[in-house]
Amino acid sequence: MLAIREIIATKDIASQDEILTELTSRGFELTQATLSRDIKELQIAKVPDGMGRYRYRIAPNQVARMQPTELTSGADFIRSCALSIEFSGQMAVLKTRPGYASVVADMVDKSQIDGVMGTLAGDDTVLLVLRTNANNALITHVLSQWIPDIESKIIHNA
Amino acid sequence: MLAIREIIATKDIASQDEILTELTSRGFELTQATLSRDIKELQIAKVPDGMGRYRYRIAPNQVARMQPTELTSGADFIRSCALSIEFSGQMAVLKTRPGYASVVADMVDKSQIDGVMGTLAGDDTVLLVLRTNANNALITHVLSQWIPDIESKIIHNA
DNA sequence: ATGCTCAATGCATAATTATTCGATTGCGGT
DNA sequence: ACCGCAATCGAATAATTATGCATTGAGCAT
Known about the structure:
- Two copies of one chain form a homodimer.
- Chain A has helices at residues 2-10, 16-25, 32-42, 68-72, 75-79, 101-110, 136-144; strands spanning 44-48, 54-58, 82-88, 91-96, 116-121, 125-130, 153-155.
- By secondary structure, chain A is an alpha+beta fold.
- A five-stranded mixed beta sheet of chain A has the order 5-6-4-3-7, covered by helices on one side. In chain A, strands 1-2 form a two-stranded antiparallel ribbon.
- The interface between A and B is medium-sized, with 29 and 27 residues.
- The structure holds a DNA duplex.
């Protein structure tokens, strides 16, 4: 089932048939009927992207309910969702693919980085609340493992 | 078109036909074809609610792109989305209808209330980050215009 | 081992949603 | 006023998605 999430996170998918094609090409055997049911269960939806097309997307809320095992095993998956990170004072803002902020936030929580008090996830943004004596360099280092090719900017306000 | 947003914000809608019914009962004349197109334009989607049913919901991202005029003219609409507010220290938590946090947050941003540093929206919750010297009473006053019948609680933590 | 229950799945189809294809309307520009 | 031209809409239809029903198989108690 994770495969479905992975597919819609990685590719621009506009119909269940496309997902089906991907799935079968990866060796899964199922029909559109089961796919529809799986999608319902995973709370994945086909949403207009504002550019005249449709795209399958994970529903905003359901993410928070994912099981730890599911998440921790999906490190590669997460890696493709986190886009950038930027610091500001005692906070950091982590940008993700649309809809995946909660997944990434959970991942960050689970990795218990020293100096990170907690996270708050929107749709494509994660707010990290840092301890006042946080070592930003350390945090950057840990997080940058998940965010290849993107330089982290550090900005200090007040 | 605002009417569509209002309907899906107010009622539990599971199909376009239901929206259509609501619309016609309000005097609008259109067919499912146009409705589908409008819905696409408004970026409204049919998402599984995790309880075995479907529900039409505003897409999480699109909200941020709404035009000021659209927003400011939709004050009535917003008013029906904000549910309650509660203060704690330098923060305030504003509860909204599911899926509307972003809209409300944007509204708050746009109104530039003194003392509000910024907002972070989840799905049905908006976090307001306040300045340390913020005048909570003022903020309450401004915001309470949008939140009728709900007493604001003010709690001070450390 | 047998039979029962329950969950999962495919098939076929219903239900729903998107889009094509005219037809119509409104709007400059001449 | 007349002519494109573009936008918009409805009807019909295509495309897509959800689901009723039957079947299968796993787990389990007898």
